[in-house]
C-alpha cells in the first residue's frame, strides 16, 4: 500500500511539474527526463511526429554524460526515421502500442522490427533493455514516441523494465501528451506572431527565431551554473527566456516595407526608423500579466544594446520612444555594461551570431571561422565579455541547435 501511495504522489508531482512548462522544446526535454527518473532508466530519446516520420528531439544518457567535463552537455545525432514496422520507435508509432524489450540483442528473428548494434559500437555503450511508449492523444493521434533505455537496479546493474514500469509510463505519457498539446499550441501562436513579422521582414523566419532562442537558453544555463543559481529558478527562467527570445524582433511589424526590405545600406534617417522596432516590440508587452511579459519586453527593448554603450535605443519611454531623463544636451542616455538586462545581453549575442552565420539578401553566410573570429573581436565592445567566454564554452551545443533548426538555402 505504501508503494502505491508513493507512486500516486510521484504521478501528481510529475503532472504538476509538466503543467508549469510552457515552451515546447523545454517540455520535450523535461518529459524525457521525468520518464527516465520514474523508471530509473539510464538513457532515452524522445521523438516527435513530423509528417510521416519521427524526428529525434532530445537524447539523454547518464553513463555517457558522466564521462564529460563538468557543465558540458551530451551531443547526439539529429535524424529522423520513417513510421513503419522496421524500427522499434517507428513500429510503436505505427501500432500506437508500447513495446517492452528485455534485451535488444535477443529480439526474436521473426519480428518485423530490428536493432542495429552499430550505434552501440560507435558510442561504446551497450543498449540492453528498452521500453518504447507512444505519445498518443485522447483521439488516438500519435504525437511522438518516448524510448527509455537500460533500467537500473539499486546496485547499478541493468535489468528489464517491469510491467509496473510499463503501466506507470503509459499513464505518464497520457498526461505528458496533454501538456505537449498545450505547448504545441503556445509554439504555434508564437510562430504565427513571427510569421506576421516575416511577411514584413523575410529574415524573421521560424528557423531563425528557434535558433536564437535555443542559443540563448544554452548561454543562460551555463551562466546560471557558474552563478550556482537554484535549479528551480533556472528551470523557470529558461522556459520563459526561450519563448521571449523567439519574439525579440516582433516590433518589426510596425516598420515600413520600404525600409525592412531594402537590399542596401540604410540612410541615417532610415536607420533611425529601423531602431524604433526595439521599443515598438517592447510596447506589445506593457500590459504585464506575467513574468513572461516582463522578460519579453526587456528582450525586445534591449537586444540591440552594446556593452560599451554604443547600441540602441537606450533609456526611452516605450510608449512614446522619447528619452527618459535625457542627458544635458537632450540626447538619449545610453545603456552601458550591466545596465542592459541579462536577457537582452544574451539575446544580443545569440542574434548576431545567427545573423552572421545566415545568408541574407545583401550578403552570403559567413564561414564559421570568420563568425567566431568576429565574436572574439566584439567581446568587451558589443558583447558582455563574460557571456562571450560562455558562448565559446557551449559552442558544441550551439552547433547542435543549428543542426536541429538548419539555415534556409
Structure description:
This protein has 409 residues and is α+β, with helices and mostly antiparallel strands. The protein folds into two domains: 2-183, Beta-Lactamase (2-Layer Sandwich), CATH 3.30.450.40; 201-404, Orthogonal Bundle (Hypothetical protein af1432), CATH 1.10.3210.10. The protein has helices spanning 2-20, 24-39, 62-66, 88-95, 118-123, 163-200, 206-226, 231-246, 257-260, 268-275, 277-283, 291-302, 342-357, 368-377, 385-393, 395-404, and strands spanning 41-50, 53-61, 80-82, 99-101, 130-136, 142-152, 158-159. Strands 1, 2, 3, 4, 5, 6 and 7 form a seven-stranded antiparallel β-sheet that branches. A hairpin with a 5-residue loop joins strand 6 and strand 7 (158-159). It starts with a helix and ends in a 5-residue tail after the last helix. The model has no long low-confidence stretch (mean pLDDT 91).
The total tally of domains equals: 2
Helical segment count: 16
Radius of gyration, Cα only, in angstroms? Answer: 23 Å
User: Helices and strands, in N-to-C order?
Assistant: HHEEHEHEHEEEHHHHHHHHHHH
Number of strands: 7
Q: Name the CATH superfamily classification of the largest domain.
A: Hypothetical protein af1432
Strand fraction band?
Answer: 5-15%
